[in-house]
Design a protein that fits this description.
- The chain has 158 residues and is mainly beta.
- It has one domain: Cathepsin D, subunit A, domain 1.
- It has one helix and eleven strands, in the order ββββββββββαβ.
């Protein structure tokens, strides 16, 4: 009899992912089975309407301890939801849907936008986004791939 996890990939407690719809090539994410909702550190958050739908513009610092690297993002708001923060306080957060790429696979996830500046990781992947896809090995990191750094191309003097 096959186990329930036979079709799931094993991931470490932290991994590198991409959010291509948002223009984020690489961001380190903590896989947190204790959190239902995934969260992304966002700042300069501004909502607006386009064709009758609520959208949001925001910025992301995708790399830890690097406030110079900044990605401007835009997405449609799919919900406003009450979420309990790590301190136990309930906050209403904007929810967007975007594609997540992890270990060569891509699937849509919901992300709440919040201030995670004081947290260790700029993004948290909750159990709803992992359901039926991933099993987490808490003793391992970066099982599904390392961050690929873009190579700098130096042009020869002409």
């Amino acid at each position: 009899m096959p186990s329930e996890t036979s079709d799931k990939r094993t991931a470490g407690w932290r991994e590198w992912v991409a959010l291509p719809d948002l223009g984020v090539d690489a961001i380190k994410v903590k896989l947190d089975t204790g959190a239902r909702t995934s969260a992304l550190h966002a700042f300069d958050v501004e909502t607006f309407r386009r064709r009758g739908n609520e959208h949001v513009r925001f910025s992301v610092h995708p790399l830890q301890r690097d406030d110079a690297t900044r990605v401007a993002c835009e997405a449609r708001v799919v919900d406003r939801r009450w979420v309990t923060n790590p301190g136990g306080r309930r906050e209403q957060r904007l929810i967007i849907e975007t594609a997540l790429v992890l270990g060569g696979e891509s699937w849509p996830i919901e992300l709440c936008l919040t201030d995670r500046d004081e947290m260790g990781m700029r993004m948290l992947l909750g159990r709803t986004a992992m359901r039926d896809r991933l099993t987490v090995d808490p003793a391992r990191s970066f099982v599904l791939g390392k961050r690929r750094r873009k190579k700098r191309v130096l042009k020869a003097a002409e």
